[in-house]
Amino acid sequence: MTTDEITDLLTEAYVDELETVMNYLTNAIVLDGIHAEEVKESLEEDVQEELDHARMLGERLKQLEESPPGSEAFEASQSSLQPPADTTDVRSVIDGVLEAEDEAIETYRALADAADDANDPVTEDVAVGILADEEAHLTEFRGFRKEFPTD
Ligand SMILES: [Fe+2]
Ligand SMILES: [Fe+2]
Fold it and tell me: Residue 151 above 70 pLDDT?
């Protein structure tokens, strides 16, 4: 059985995925310099995965007789993922990705828990599948972060 908590989390996650698509795509385009290439390639791959996540969430909302939102419902929140003024500042983008992936992981854990409580195994399965992808993204960018000393 579905609950408002489940449809709210699905909707929130849908919007967050689309904001992530925009910011990963932008940063994959704008970054410059010798440290940027691998990060850009990884962002480019993740754009496709995040878009697939949005699609799965939107389809689940449809199955629950809800609609995913259009752009007028959109409120941006990823301030740490805005393209850096210095386009060689790869580290700020990596830090922004780590923050976004951490937040995504939190959302999918909450969705999986809510779905489990509501005995909604299909939504739980969607949440757990996406959660695994986000943990892989986080691990990859933690690796990139190691190349940049903390000041
Ligand atoms: Fe995602
Ligand atoms: Fe991700």
Answer: no
